[in-house]
Amino acid sequence: MTMQQDPQNAAQVKFVGAGPGDPDLLTVQALRALEAADVVLHDRLVSDAILALAGASARLVDVGKAGFGPSWDQRDIEALIVAEAASGARVVRLKSGDPAVFGRLDEEIEAVEAAGLSWRIVPGLTAASAAVAAIGQSLTRRGRNSGLRLLTGHDMRGFADHDWSALARPGEVAAIYMGKKSARFIQGRLIMHGADRATPVTLVENASRPDQRVLPTTLDRLPADLDAAGMDGPVLTLFGLAPRAAVRTLPLLHEEFA
Question: Which residue intervals define the domain Tetrapyrrole methylase in the entry (predicted)?
Answer without folding.
Answer: 14-222
